[in-house]
Write a structure and sequence with these properties.
Blueprint lengths: L10 H5 L1 H4 L5 E3 L5 E4 L15 H4 L33 E3 L8 E5 L1 H10 L4 E4 L2 E4 L4 E2 L5 E4 L4 E4 L6 E8 L5 E3 L2 E3 L16 E8 L2 E6 L2 E3 L4 E6 L9 E7 L2 E3 L4 E5 L2 E7 L2 E3 L8 E5 L8 E7 L2 E3 L3 E6 L9 E8 L2 E3 L4 E8 L6 E8 L2 E3 L5 E6 L5 E5 L2 E3 L1
Parallel strand pairs: 3-5, 4-6, 5-8, 6-9, 7-10, 8-11, 9-12, 10-13, 11-14, 12-15, 13-16, 14-17, 15-18, 16-19, 17-20, 18-21, 19-22, 20-23, 21-24, 22-25, 23-26, 24-27, 25-28, 26-29, 27-30, 28-31, 29-32, 30-33
Antiparallel strand pairs: 1-31, 2-32
Protein name: Pectate lyase superfamily protein
GO molecular function: lyase activity
Keywords: Lyase
């Protein structure tokens, strides 16, 4: 039955490194009602070679590091190729030599197909296999996965990869992608506090892009990662809409947001995140004072069997540039998070300015070890409001 209980603190919460490195201030699991509090998350990388250093010293998680092939290593399609997709028709990836037989390494052929179909719809069919160098999408790329189509990584030995990269591109559309990070085929060191940079979809400095019904499974790091451009840390991703994302069995997060404006996740389901910290369904955490968290909307998310359902951590955000944060979560449903369904914290202003709000309305937390927690939060920072919370033990 739903219940209200203030100051509910699990023993595991005290032992978790994200909290033991700082003084615990408040923990709460609440039933129906309103709680005004304030934020906790996971992400950090100042450059393309970043690793999970913060977790090694007891902190939060890091963002995506670069693969051996950067987004700039493949020639960008010319502006004459960038025709509008609405009138350009559909091209089958097989016409570029993609075999999709479940055995052949199709990465080079599929990259050629992506580069050669800008302004058109590229139809991907069959069981595509690629190596861990990944694929670069272009401005005006439009990928559509046929029923039953998938891209799965071949055996590899790296903790850092991106299956699909949307780096510094505009007007990208992806439909029905099914991406398998093949963590069972990865011989990289399985460190519970390190090595979380293997991404299904990496979005960095991209704008005006939509991803519809993507599935990302078994990624070494995150199913989807959203952050600033790696070429300009002051250029966040902007106007990114992701609908019906399904992430299952990823090691670090179902999804991560480190920097972005006008970012929407609509009706995602993030499940069974486990392997390296923080193991959240969604992790919202800026890497530094360059980051932007503006108009972040998470609509009707479902989190299942993750360490944290949703985690918001602003520890790295304060700095010389004043920041305003707006994060709105509605109708969060968490089932059996084995640590905390929703955790917020990590903000110490130290004379800097971070304003705004972080809200969660109408959450339902079922069978989670803890419903809601707030730790190490400077109350001069963004207001945190949790309304109409239901917690079922």
């Amino acid at each position: 039955m739903p219940f209200i209980k203030n100051n509910l603190l699990s023993s595991e919460l005290n032992q978790n490194p994200i909290f033991t490195r700082r003084k615990f201030l408040t923990a709460l699991a609440a039933g129906t009602g309103t709680v005004a509090l304030a934020a906790c998350g996971g992400g950090s990388a100042d450059d393309l070679a970043a690793t999970d250093k913060r977790w090694r010293r007891g902190g939060a998680a890091t963002t995506s590091a670069a693969s051996s092939t950067s987004a700039s290593s493949t020639p960008v399609a010319s502006s004459t190729q960038a025709a509008a997709t609405s009138s350009a028709g559909t091209v089958d990836a097989s016409t570029f030599g993609v075999k999709a037989d479940g055995v052949t390494n199709d990465r080079a052929a599929l990259q050629k197909a992506i580069d050669g179909s800008v302004g058109k719809i590229l139809l991907i069919s069959g069981k595509v296999r690629i190596d861990s160098a990944g694929l670069d999408l272009r401005t005006n790329s439009h990928l559509r996965f046929a029923s039953g189509a998938s891209i799965k990584l071949l055996a590899h030995n790296t903790a850092s990869y991106q299956i699909l990269r949307l780096w510094d591109v505009n007007n990208v559309q992806i439909e029905n992608a099914y991406l398998d990070g093949s963590k069972e085929l990865n011989s990289a060191t399985n460190d519970p506090n390190d090595g979380g940079q293997g991404m299904g979809i990496s979005i960095a400095g991209a704008t005006n892009s939509t991803i519809t019904s993507p599935t990302t499974i078994n990624c070494w790091g995150d199913g989807i990662y959203i952050g600033s451009s790696y070429h300009s840390l002051t250029t966040p991703s902007n106007a990114i809409t992701i609908t019906k994302h399904v992430a299952d069995g990823c090691r670090r997060q179902g999804a991560t947001i480190t920097s972005g404006s006008n970012i929407t996740f609509d009706t995602p389901t993030w499940s069974n995140t486990q392997g390296t910290m923080p193991s959240a369904g969604l992790d919202i955490e800026p890497n530094d004072n360059n980051a932007v968290l503006s108009n972040i909307k998470v609509i009707s998310p479902t989190t299942n069997n993750c360490r944290y359902g949703i985690l918001v951590y602003l520890g790295a955000l304060p700095g010389p540039v004043a920041k305003a944060v707006t994060v709105d979560i509605t109708n969060h449903r968490d089932n059996a998070s084995y640590h905390v369904a929703y955790a917020v914290g990590g903000l110490q202003l130290n004379g800097y300015s971070v304003t705004g709000h972080i809200s969660s309305d109408n959450p339902v937390y079922m069978h989670s070890a803890l419903g809601f927690s707030k730790t190490d939060w400077d109350n001069a920072g963004p207001a945190v409001e949790v309304t109409n919370m239901t917690y079922t033990r």
